[in-house]
Amino acid sequence: MAYTARPNYKRSLEHNFDCCIASREPFRYRSKSANPPVGHKALYSAQVSAAKTRYVPPFSIQTQQKNTKVVDAPMTKGSSSGSASARGKTDQKTVRLSVTKVKLGPSHDLNKPHRSSSFRMYFDRGDLPIKMEYLCGGDKIGWTVDIDKLDYSLYLPLFFDGLCETEHPYKTYARQGVSDLLIAGGDKLAPVIPQLILPLKNALSTKNLEVMCTTLKIIQQLVLSSDQVGPALVPFYRQLLPMFNAYKVKNLNCGDEIDYAQKNNMNLGDLIDETLQVLELHGGEDAFINIKYMVPTYESCYLN
Questions:
Q1: Is the peptide bond before 169 cis (omega within 30 degrees of 0)?
Q2: Most buried residue, 34, 102, 112, 236, by most Cβ within 10 Å?
């Protein structure tokens, strides 16, 4: 029987120690039954730790990988039958799936729908006889055609439709154009009253404080422009006065503080009261009863 030389255990330990120093790896003792090392890379492998379980969304390619656990679908998250969490109930961790949020641009803003007015369309096409005059006291519109020669049945409702605009220069042209047309209108205003009701109603329905206050001032100017306008507006109170009744109590209460913006006359509640008084004073005999029917809290200015 041939004698087989047994490797020296002490010498193998020294060899392993030298290899660990050369490779800067932690030294581990080898058992006597282990095979002799082959280079410094084949030293004792560390114990493989259990891989952590990863949570993956359902119906994805990741569900076919190892050490993965499928997360319940949103429809079966609260159900007690048929779901993996209901059968196993081994983990109580809540896994939140990231949801991609799509940011809508300004043209897709759902909370602020944009209404393109006819005034803007005519202005962009250059069909309006107006231009901007830059003066030292402020900007003012100029008319390329004499106002007395304009067709009020066409241009007055068109400029009234621009009262709902909130962007420059549309709102500037529309508001100053309406004011100039009312000043020079006279007897031409009364026949056009039925065409002005819908633009006025749209402007009051915007729920924009600046637009509503400007529209109320325009209504007062419209009534005071001619003696025939007040009685002509009475049949249309049912279209205009519901917004008056809804915002009549919307007053600015600043307490003992000073309202420095009082000169701008932008208090909606006070403007509504002033407009109702103007309508009653210049609307004739049937004005008060029609105003009282639509605005029950209104009190006659003749009695106070």
A1: yes
A2: 236
DSSP-assigned letter for residue 92 = -
Instruction: Give per-residue pLDDT as tens, 85-131.
Output: 444 444 444 444 333 343 434 433 333 444 668 888 888 888 888 88
* Alpha helices (runs of H) in 205-286, residue ranges in sequence order: 209-225, 229-233, 237-246, 268-282
In contact, 229 and 193? CB cutoff 8 Å: yes
Return the structure tokens found at 80.
Answer: 């007690």
Cβ partners under 8 Å of residue 61, min gap 6: none
For the segment 241-258, the average pLDDT, to the nearest whole number, is 79
Is residue 176 within a helix (H) or strand (E), and if so which, with residue range? helix 170-183
Closest CA to 42 of 11, 61, 20: 20
For the stretch 282-297, pLDDT in tens is: 988 889 999 999 999 8
Where are the extended beta strands (E) located within the chain? 54-56, 68-70, 130-135, 138-143
Burial 119-146 (b: 16+ CB within 10 A, else e): bbebbeeeebebeeeeeeeeeebebeee
Distance, CA of 145 to CA of 30 (rounded, Å): 106
**pLDDT score, position 85:** 46
Alpha carbon separation from 162 to 166, 178, 257 (Å, rounded) = 9, 9, 35
Please state, in angstroms and rounded to a whole number, the distance separating the CA atoms of residues 212 and 164.
Answer: 8
